[in-house]
């Protein structure tokens, strides 16, 4: 049984690459969309809103297929891995935007007024007062996203990225033991996600704040 | 106007703030309707009136948190409606203290007070810390400087809020119902702090219903209702013979609610 673990761990490494890169892209897109939606002027806030609603309203696989199979007809050709990262990042950003926005909303307008009344600019206030709190408040729900992504990234096998699930299918085609191999793969996902959740819980406990 | 009978002696008063026919509406609702008054250096002005009278909005018009729709505010003859892009700077010359404190939850008491000098005035860390500690000393919060807002009582939060405003060395401090969200037993410590500031001749504009405080230190009182000034005058004027019938009714209702504000006058008594 041990002989194919090496293959699976190579796959797990690709899964990590996909999910952590996508998570990072998602943080940037999510923050930008949340801020645009909350503080942006008309056209910008509408754009952010449209992004969030469209992505959350369509399946991840459709988004992935549009990027991998659809864009080449417009002359945009991404490698399988890059397609998967872009799709996962854009998808995650839409969900993260809502987590960040919720956190920003819960801080309320009072602290914004207080910071402005000290003479701080809006941008200073957002970066010094609002976002440091929004990160902390969003962390519990944001942890979900970090825990989902390694699992969701398995859709990348549909576009031939050799991540964990794709590797397991290759192993099974050799040893013909689907029950055993999928069971092991399940355990690997489980251990991965439990570890991520545990780490984020510790981070949350360390930095949590009470907003009144 | 109205300040002629003040027996304070120092009659070389200079105008710090001049509110000129300020109007403000939210959508179709007119909230402030043509308010004008002057505030002289080193004096305390008390604004009071029923809720919904536009007091808090007026206060936010004064430091341009909500720029007026019409009219303007002068800070030492500078028209705050015509500051170009420099409104953040002029706003920093006002301090503001809020009903719900609005302390920054992710910062300690010390950092809450330091951030203004640090970020707005760009004062180096160690000097900003000295300034902040002085401000905290003034409100007797120095021992709490490493605590977070969630670990403080309401009165301590509000005193920290006052220190945060003081650390910017403002020319005027605006108080927006600073004691309204406090438990009764915590009101005294905040009022005492405000009395100390008034005694030090800080210029203050206070929206408050603490009539004991007004009696002790206000040089001018302004009664507002439905977005407009109904009556202006000294505390003596208001507590002996308020002219307007609406003022009389409001004051007697306050007396009914809070008694003859004696308990809080005790604390104010030694000021007179």
The total count of helices of chain A amounts to 8
CATH H level of chain A: which superfamily? MetI-like
- Cα radius of gyration of chain A in angstroms: 20 Å
Sheet-strand content of chain A, in percent, reads under 5%
Briefly note the CATH topology name of chain A.
MetI-like fold
Under CATH, the homologous superfamily of the largest domain in chain B reads P-loop containing nucleotide triphosphate hydrolases
What's the CATH first level of chain A?
Mainly Alpha
Describe this structure in words.
The complex is a heterodimer of chains A (212) and B (272). Chain A is an all-alpha fold and 212 residues long. Chain A has one domain (2-207): MetI-like (MetI-like fold), CATH 1.10.3720.10. Chain A contains eight helices and no strands. Chain A has helices at residues 5-39, 42-56, 60-70, 80-107, 110-117, 122-152, 164-175, 178-207. In chain A, 39% of the residues are buried. The model of chain A has no long low-confidence stretch (mean pLDDT 94). In chain B, the strands form two sheets. In chain B, strands 6-7-8-3-9-10 form a six-stranded mixed β-sheet, with helices on both faces. A four-stranded antiparallel β-sheet of chain B has the order 2-1-4-5, with helices on one face. The longest helix of chain B is centred in the C-terminal third of the chain and has 16 residues, at 184-199. In chain B, α6 links the parallel β7 and β8 (204-207). Chain B is of the alpha/beta class and 272 residues long. Chain B has helices at residues 55-62, 87-91, 109-120, 125-138, 154-166, 184-199, 211-217, 235-240, 245-258, 262-269, and strands at residues 15-26, 29-40, 44-48, 70-75, 78-79, 94-97, 172-176, 204-207, 218-225, 228-233. Classes of the chains: A mainly alpha (212), B alpha/beta (272). Chain A binds chain B through residues 107, 110-111, 113-121, 124, 128-129, 132-133, 136, 209-212, and chain B through 60, 63, 65, 88-89, 91-96, 98, 100-106, 115-116, 119-120, 148-150, 161, 164-165, 168, 174.
């Amino acid at each position: 049984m041990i002989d194919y673990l090496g293959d699976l761990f190579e796959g797990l490494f690709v899964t990590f690459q996909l999910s952590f890169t996508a998570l990072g892209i998602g943080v940037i897109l999510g923050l930008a969309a949340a801020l645009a939606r909350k503080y942006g002027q008309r056209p910008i806030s509408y754009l952010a809103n449209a992004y969030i609603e469209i992505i959350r309203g369509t399946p991840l696989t459709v988004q992935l297929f549009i990027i991998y199979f659809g864009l080449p007809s417009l002359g945009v050709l991404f490698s399988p891995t890059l397609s998967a990262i872009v799709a996962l990042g854009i998808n995650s950003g839409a969900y993260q935007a809502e987590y960040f926005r919720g956190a920003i909303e819960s801080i309320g307008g009072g602290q914004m007024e207080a910071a402005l009344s000290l003479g701080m600019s809006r941008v200073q206030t957002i970066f010094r007062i609002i976002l440091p709190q929004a990160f902390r408040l969003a962390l519990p729900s944001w942890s979900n996203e970090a825990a989902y992504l390694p699992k969701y990234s398995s859709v990348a096998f549909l576009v031939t990225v050799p991540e964990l699930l794709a590797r397991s299918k290759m192993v099974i085609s050799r040893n013909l033991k689907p029950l055993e191999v999928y069971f092991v793969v399940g355990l690997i996902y489980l251990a991965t996600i439990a570890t991520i959740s545990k780490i984020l819980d510790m981070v949350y406990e360390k930095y949590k704040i009470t907003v009144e | 106007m109205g300040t002629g009978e003040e027996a304070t002696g120092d009659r070389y008063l200079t105008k710090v703030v001049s509110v000129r026919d300020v109007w403000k509406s939210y959508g179709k609702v007119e909230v402030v309707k043509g308010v004008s008054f002057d505030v002289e250096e080193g004096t305390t002005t008390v604004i009071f009136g029923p809720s919904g009278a536009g007091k808090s909005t007026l206060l936010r018009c004064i430091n341009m948190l909500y720029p007026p729709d019409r009219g303007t505010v002068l800070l030492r003859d500078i028209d705050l409606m015509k500051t170009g892009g420099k409104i953040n700077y002029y706003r920093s010359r006002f301090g503001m203290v809020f009903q719900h404190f609005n302390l920054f939850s992710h910062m300690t008491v010390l950092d809450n007070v330091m951030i203004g000098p640090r970020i707005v005035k760009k004062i180096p860390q160690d000097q900003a810390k000295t300034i902040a500690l002085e401000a905290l000393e003034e409100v007797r919060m120095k021992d709490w400087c490493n605590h977070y807002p969630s670990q403080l009582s309401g009165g301590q939060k509000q005193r920290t809020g006052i220190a945060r405003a003081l650390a910017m060395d403002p020319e005027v401090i605006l108080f927006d119902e600073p004691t309204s969200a406090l438990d009764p037993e915590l009101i005294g410590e905040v009022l005492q702090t405000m009395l100390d500031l008034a005694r030090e001749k800080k210029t203050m504009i206070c929206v408050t219903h603490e009539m004991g405080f007004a009696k002790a230190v206000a040089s001018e009182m302004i009664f507002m209702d439905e977005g407009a000034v109904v009556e202006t005058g000294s505390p003596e004027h208001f507590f002996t013979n308020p002219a307007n019938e609406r003022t009389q009714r409001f004051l007697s209702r306050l007396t009914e609610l809070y008694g003859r504000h004696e308990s809080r006058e005790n604390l104010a008594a030694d000021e007179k």
